[in-house]
Amino acid sequence: MTPSPSEIIELAAGLRGRGGAGFPTATKLASVRRAAAPRTVVANGEEGEPGSLKDRWLLRERPELVLEGLRLAAVAIEADRSVVYFSDQAAEQSVIRLAPPTVEIIRVAPRYVAGEETSIVRVLDGGPALPLAKPPRPYEQGVLVLNVESLARLARRAAGESDPPLLATLTGGGRPATLHEVHPGTTLRALTEAHTPDPVRGVLAGGLFGGFLTTLDVEVSHDGLAAAGSALGCGAFRVLGPDDCPVAVAAAALDYLAGQSAQQCGACIRGTDALSATVAALRAGTATAADLDLLATRASRLPGRGACGLPDAAARLATSLLTVFPAVVRRHLIPGCEACRLPVDLHATSTSAPPQPARRLDQHTTSTSAPPQPARHLDQHTTPTSPPPRPARDLDQHAIEGVRA
């Protein structure tokens, strides 16, 4: 029997959003329920973080969990409209196969800012997938946007799991991307050791939002990483192995963010570009001590000055580079870092190894990846000739197959 709206909101107590911000799920549900009709609920699977795999995996391999969570959220807020929103072409048929006719399916072109909740509202209103200034926030206007993992965890709660594990993606360290179930109490050290046996000098945490972190004996949770001065974000961690240079990783990340800017906010356009240019010069060995001082000043002034979190991510990344790796940064004032000459791939990299079954953290999984095909809007899609997805199984029995960047 379907729980009542109040029972579903109570069921969501303690769950936090898995799209990046970590907002309490029950609070969002209750806020939208109080908003005037019509109300809309959106399953947000637009995975803008380049190093994350979890949302694509859920939509491809466990869409029934996402759709059940969407159904429950729709009941909780008495929604007039339900939407699944994503950019991953490979997930399209999996979602179409299981989604009821009442659920709209929208696929957009992939972009870092496309999954921001106000970008989604613009798309729902017929506009581009670009963010809007806040307030008001969508949930204050009757639009509930929940990450697909948030909805999957709500469905697992409804099925009797009191504390469903989080999903985390690890990249870097000279290893293919790995996707993990993270149970309560798991430390970042245990997670990185599951990804690679090699020494780890730190991580870029929370996708590109959490900045650098070298303290690994912290719990992989919102509170644990916040206490360490970082953020869980979407649960993506870029491992810094012994051959990785944090300056090179920061330069690549800032270059990516600058290129993904919506080009709507002057502070973001100028500020993010300036941070990227300075760290690129540092990587090339052409920056000066004065440049580092200016980098710190610019990074301190940038947060909160854009319509979305992109400039905040850039500022946190630059600041953490200066504070977490000060000696490394100073050494780059003189040219000669060999690691900086190597290319840096921020995305979940491809592997020729066969996929492994999804298992507990101490039996970590390996995923396969390949470049995405060009995105098309759903109403332009063609029917693929590949076989239909196989029947879903329990998560701990399910092979992470076909997870591609």
**What fraction, in percent, of the residue positions are helical?**
25-40%
The amount of beta strand, in percent, is 5-15%
- Written as H for each helix and E for each strand, in order along the chain, the element string is HHEHHEHEHEHEEHEEHEHHHHH
- Extract low-pLDDT stretches: 349-405
Main sheet summary: 5 strands, mixed
CATH homologous superfamily annotation of the largest domain: NADH-ubiquinone oxidoreductase 51kDa subunit, iron-sulphur binding domain
Whole-number tally of structural domains: 2
The assigned structural class equals alpha/beta
Count of beta strands: 9
Please state the average pLDDT score: 84
Order of strands side by side in the largest beta sheet? Answer: 6-5-9-7-8
Q: Total helix count?
A: 14
**Computed CA radius of gyration, to the nearest angstrom:** 21 Å
The rounded distance between the terminal residues' Cα atoms is 38 Å
CATH class term of the largest domain: Mainly Alpha
CATH third-tier fold name of the largest domain: de novo design (two linked rop proteins)
Tell me, what's the shape?
A: globular
Q: Which architecture of the largest domain would the CATH scheme give at its second level?
A: Up-down Bundle
